[in-house]
């Protein structure tokens, strides 16, 4: 085995990323804080997420090849992302990782990188309570 194994390879490559995305989006669509941010037609979003996560984990640069630099924060600015929405997104991803069977050290490393990314997307404070 070569020294520079990517996280993408460690978790199981394309098949595992696909499983994760398939497990993730039904959770997002069922979540009261997240559902309003996503279109009814979720497939194109799922495809982008699949391409992005593949690249994010060190796999082929599918996202950049099709859409250019991810520029995550800029691409998410049109959406009101609050701390509670970022946490809800992470919760759904955590459950999806369970479902996809992503475990151990790889999961910890992957999830901690997602936490950083999710917190970077926050662009609004929590709304003032009524």
From TrEMBL:
Q: What Gene3D superfamilies is this protein classified in?
A: Globins
Identify which cofactors the protein needs according to its UniProt entry: heme
Keywords attached to this entry: Heme, Iron, Metal-binding, Transport
- Which residues are involved in binding heme? 119
* Pfam families per UniProt: Bac_globin
GO molecular function terms listed in the Swiss-Prot or TrEMBL record: heme binding; metal ion binding; oxygen binding; oxygen carrier activity
Q: Which CDD domains match?
A: TrHb2_Bs-trHb-like_O (cd14772)
Q: What's the family?
A: Belongs to the truncated hemoglobin family. Group II subfamily.
Question: What name is this protein filed under?
Answer: Hemoglobin
Source organism of this protein record: Lihuaxuella thermophila
Lineage of the source organism?
Answer: Bacteria, Bacillati, Bacillota, Bacilli, Bacillales
């Amino acid at each position: 085995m070569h020294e520079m194994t990517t996280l993408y390879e460690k978790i199981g490559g394309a098949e595992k990323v696909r499983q994760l995305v398939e497990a993730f989006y039904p959770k997002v669509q069922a979540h009261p804080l997240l559902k309003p941010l996503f279109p009814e037609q979720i497939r194109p979003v799922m495809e982008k997420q699949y391409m992005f996560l593949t690249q994010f984990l060190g796999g082929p640069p599918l996202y950049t090849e099709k859409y250019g630099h991810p520029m995550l924060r800029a691409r998410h600015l049109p959406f009101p992302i609050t701390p509670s929405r970022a946490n809800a997104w992470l919760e759904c991803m955590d459950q999806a990782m369970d479902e996809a069977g992503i475990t151990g050290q790889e999961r910890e490393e992957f999830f901690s990188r997602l936490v950083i990314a999710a917190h970077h997307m926050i662009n609004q404070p929590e709304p003032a309570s009524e």
